[in-house]
Amino acid sequence: MILKGQMILVTGASRGIGKACARRCAEEGASVVLVARDGDKLEEVRNSLPGSGHLVVPADLQNPEESVPNLFDAACADGVKLTGLVHAAGIGVSAPATVASMKSMLESFTVNYFSFMLMVRHFIRKKYSDGGSIVAVSSVAAVAGWKGVSVYAGTKGALNASVRSLAIELADRGVRVNAVLPSNIKTEMLESLSLITGEDAVQRVEAKQPLGFGDAEDVANAVIFLLNPASRFITGSSLTVDGGYTAM
Ligand SMILES: NC(=O)c1ccc[n+]([C@@H]2O[C@H](COP(=O)([O-])OP(=O)(O)OC[C@H]3O[C@@H](n4cnc5c(N)ncnc54)[C@H](OP(=O)(O)O)[C@@H]3O)[C@@H](O)[C@H]2O)c1
């Protein structure tokens, strides 16, 4: 129960990596604020979690200027304060840069990056936390090229770059900021990627991961470590969780 007594906001909690993070947080004793657009799925996740005090806050991070203040107010009603923030909501590959529209590029940056920056700005306010640990779910796409993912990679590279500076800016406030960089993990996002790039391409990628494709829990376990006070001397880092992909 290494997160006992903590209150952790997890975006993307309706499925995949965010859902696994929410479950692992709850298993380790935390109460979880579950955020995504699909309120019904979030209720299902909440009902499946051990422990108590979990909240469902449906929000569309495509519109963060409106949704982020609202979701922090909902999460921290009655004077509750957050101790952690995990940004796992994300939009996967939409189209290669050669054909991606400005609209789709802005949508990817809004959900994957800008909403994170707005959430950090809220998290550090005394009304919402007294410090804590922030974890951005980035991607190895930020550090290793792959055909067709240049826009997505840009959103994740922006996250990694900001995590380093945020760690320095926020150290005095008792806030640590880190990123995890998963490679290919078995979620719906990977399934939709295989529809775009083809099953053969996905199999070629799997062959490049010495440990094969990971599970959402593999990423969640790294996130739990960064939320846990045992990682209290780690900030500004980008932890690869990639089955050896970038070691090749
Ligand atoms: N799977 C991989 O191989 C892989 C590899 C590297 C990095 N990642 C990163 O890991 C994170 C999670 O990926 P995943 O594989 O779990 O993806 P996923 O299964 O597609 O889940 C994406 C999550 O983001 C939420 N979301 C999407 N758009 C949103 C919006 N506008 N507002 C609020 N929530 C929104 C979705 O919930 P709703 O639809 O209910 O809103 C869902 O909970 C992403 O940041 C992704 O880039 C994944």
Describe this structure in words.
There is one protein chain. Helix 1 (16-27) crosses helix 8 (216-227), helix 3 (64-75) packs parallel to helix 4 (102-123) and helix 6 crosses helix 7 (199-207). The chain is α/β, with parallel strands linked by helices and 248 residues long. Strands 3-2-1-4-5-6-7 form a seven-stranded parallel beta sheet, with helices on both faces. The protein is built from eight helices and seven strands; from the N terminus they run βαβαβαβαβαβαααβ. The N and C termini lie far apart (35 Å). The radius of gyration is 17 Å and the shape is globular. The model has no long low-confidence stretch (mean pLDDT 95). The chain has one domain (7-179, 218-233): Rossmann fold, CATH 3.40.50. NADP nicotinamide-adenine-dinucleotide phosphate (NAP) is lined by residues 11-12, 14-18, 36-38, 41, 59-62, 88-92, 111, 137, 139, 182, 184-185, 187-190.
User: Span from first to last CA?
Assistant: 35 Å
**Which ligands accompany this protein?**
NADP nicotinamide-adenine-dinucleotide phosphate
Q: CATH fold name, please?
A: Rossmann fold
Shape: globular
What is the CATH C level class, in words?
A: Alpha Beta
Could you give me the name of the CATH homologous superfamily? NAD(P)-binding Rossmann-like Domain
